[in-house]
Design brief:
alpha/beta; Rossmann fold; 23 helices; globular; six-stranded parallel sheet; 3 domains
């Protein structure tokens, strides 16, 4: 399947004439290199193998040094004889904590980690320089800005030293991700360091803030004044660094056409290239393999559902469909508001249609909690006790049944009750009685520190997991991990066990969550305001047929979009099992499009264009 064509600017890119001596060196710089905070970590880490294939040891990442994460992901190599290591050694001799080594991820790339803590005491002087040189105000900024400025100064020192001493015979490109790494970019450009620069914004600061607080962000977008909005939301430093980086870099990039429109308004510059996000795609030799994984992890989710719901009432798990949504807690931006409203309408549709299918909706996000609700844990623990008791009874029956069958001429199945000892009968009866309750199953698995929009929605709509409701809710305000006592699954395994991912975002520059569904063969819902949804609409006209549903949020109001989403989910619920299996096969088949071996070409073009612009003195 063909990848969408490059933007016009990309098509017109003139390939740079490579130096005959040495291949250029590429630095990729980000706050989330060897530091998992959000989606940018996934972008960079998953892209590493493809970048190493193209650049080899001429590729080096730069990130912040945090001892806790470095101890896990970083292999320090002080005695390496590479120019990258020598430059780090030079700065250590000057008293700066700059470390060279290998990032312990697939591809094992070179990496430089900088410890900015020893220059944090000088941050006021750095902030003064930021104002003097770039007119970026840092008055009353948050503590993160101070760390970012110190981080940027360490990057500036390393890169400028490297270029000056070790890169006289070969070109260098530095690719900066987001404002948190880019104070170095604007200083390097101001200092006229001979370096080709690329800046990628994965989401504009102003876009994220404004979209979450107004109802008509996209309608008002052309008229926003970036300075006024930055002051209004108290992010003058962040927005100023971001805008200057966008204006001074040789090549400006973002991850989708949706966000490119914001860049024109907030940065005063048109993006040169769109860099869609990918993943490392692992395809199975046979389609039944990933179907088997779906069944395996669905059984794990079944166990949770039994423990969570069945102490109050039960239903047929074989006629149950699992939906989920996940991501950062941004109630409006991530489309949680639309999802809940559509699920309310879906519940009415299923009840009215008399369909006996049950939908369990998992909402997985991160919000402040005290702990897992003790009653939820207790229910899970007692159900586990029931399971262990049944296994003991099963073993006891098995031994007696074998003896009875072998020694008795009667071919009929004997009365199994007589094989169960009074102890196990009493223990099972007492355990079941202890477990049963007349209270409704909890909609929230944890004790929230304070009610939020999701828990408020349940209260206002009375969607409290009543027995007659066909849509059940499990709000899990923490991310899923194998150490979680409720699921005991990796997030990726949880995704495989579900049937449909629901992500109708209002503000989503890209959107990894629906892409993670696609690569695991799980149908997904996205929106035309997300970068991923926009990309899919450009990629194929029949995206719904292959299991990627796109909610129209550009042209529809909230009520219309909620109706459309409810209809999409209702159509999915009424599919036959065979139809759902076929759709999982189709969605898994398109996953190769999003492999970095294909999408890295966009990055290659950006780096070539940056070298070209540098060589002719542009920007």
């Amino acid at each position: 399947m063909a990848i969408p064509k490059l933007r016009k600017e990309q098509e017109e890119t003139i390939k740079v004439e490579k130096k005959e001596t040495l291949k250029p060196i590429l630095f990729e710089v980000a706050w989330e290199v060897c530091n998992q905070v959000g989606g940018i970590y996934t972008v960079i880490r998953s892209k590493v193998p493809s970048m190493v294939d193209e650049w080899g040891d001429n590729y080096c990442l730069i990130g912040p040094y945090f001892p806790q994460t470095a101890a896990i992901e970083f292999e320090r190599q002080d005695h390496d004889d590479s120019v990258f290591s020598k430059a780090a050694q030079d700065l250590r001799e000057q008293g700066l904590n700059v470390f060279y080594g290998r990032w312990l991820v697939t591809g094992n790339p070179r990496i430089i980690l900088v410890d900015f803590n020893n220059i944090l005491p000088t941050v006021d002087a750095l902030k003064f320089n930021l104002w003097e040189r770039h007119k970026i105000s840092t008055i009353n900024c948050e503590e993160l800005v101070n760390k970012v400025i110190a981080f940027g100064e360490m990057i500036r020192k390393y890169v400028s030293h490297f270029v000056e001493i070790y890169a006289k015979k070969q070109e260098c490109v530095a690719h900066f991700h987001e404002w948190m790494a880019s104070t170095a970019l604007i200083d390097l450009r101001k200092d006229k360091v001979p370096l080709a620069t690329v800046f990628t914004t994965h989401a504009t600061m102003l876009g994220r803030y404004i979209a979450g607080n107004v109802s008509d962000f996209y309608e008002q977008l052309p008229g926003y004044n970036w300075e006024l909005e930055a002051k209004n939301y108290g992010i003058e430093a962040q927005a100023g660094i971001e805008r200057q980086s966008a204006q001074l870099c040789h090549v400006l990039t973002t991850v989708s056409d949706v966000t490119a429109k914001e860049c024109e308004v907030f940065f005063g510059r048109t993006c040169d290239i769109i860099l869609p996000n990918g993943l490392n795609i692992t395809r199975f030799a046979a389609t039944h393999e990933f179907q088997n994984l779906h069944l395996k992890y669905k059984q794990k989710i079944n166990q949770f559902v039994m423990g969570h719901f069945f102490q109050s009432y039960s239903w047929d798990l074989d006629n149950t469909i699992y939906f989920f949504t996940s991501g950062r807690y941004e109630f409006k931006n991530k489309g949680y508001d639309l999802t809940l409203e559509a699920l309310k309408r879906l519940n009415f549709k299923i009840v009215q249609a008399g369909i006996d299918t049950t939908v369990v909706m998992f909402l997985i996000t991160k919000n402040p909690v005290y702990s897992i609700d003790p009653q939820v844990l207790q229910s899970r623990a007692v159900m586990e006790e029931i399971r262990q008791t049944c296994e003991s009874i099963e073993r006891e029956i098995g031994e007696h049944l074998f003896y009875e069958s072998a020694s008795n001429e009667d071919p009929h199945l004997p009365d199994l009750n007589k094989f169960v000892s009074e102890y196990w009968q009493l223990r099972l009866r007492r355990t079941i009685q202890t477990w049963r309750t007349k209270t409704l199953p909890h909609t929230v698995t944890h004790l929230l520190k304070q009610p939020d929009e999701i828990s408020d929605f349940f209260q206002k709509t009375n969607l409290m997991n009543h027995q007659q409701d066909r849509v059940k809710f499990v709000y899990h305000p923490d991310f899923i991990s194998p150490t979680n006592p409720l699921f005991g699954l990796e997030y990726s395994q949880f995704v495989r066990g579900c049937h449909l991912g629901v992500f109708p975002s209002y503000y989503e520059p890209w959107g990894y969550t629906p892409l993670e569904c696609v690569v695991r063969g799980i149908p997904t819902v996205t929106s035309d305001l997300s970068g991923f949804g926009d990309f899919m609409m450009q990629l194929m006209d029949d995206h719904e047929n292959v299991g990627v549903y796109v909610v129209n949020r550009k042209d529809k109001n909230f009520d219309q979009a909620a109706d459309q989403l409810a209809n999409i989910m209702f159509k999915f619920v009424t599919m036959s099992r065979r139809e759902r299996i076929m759709q999982r096969n189709k969605v898994e088949n398109i996953s190769d499009v999003f492999d970095w071996t294909n999408l890295r070409a966009y990055y290659d073009t950006a780096h070539d264009l940056a070298l070209k612009k540098k060589s002719v003195g542009k920007n």
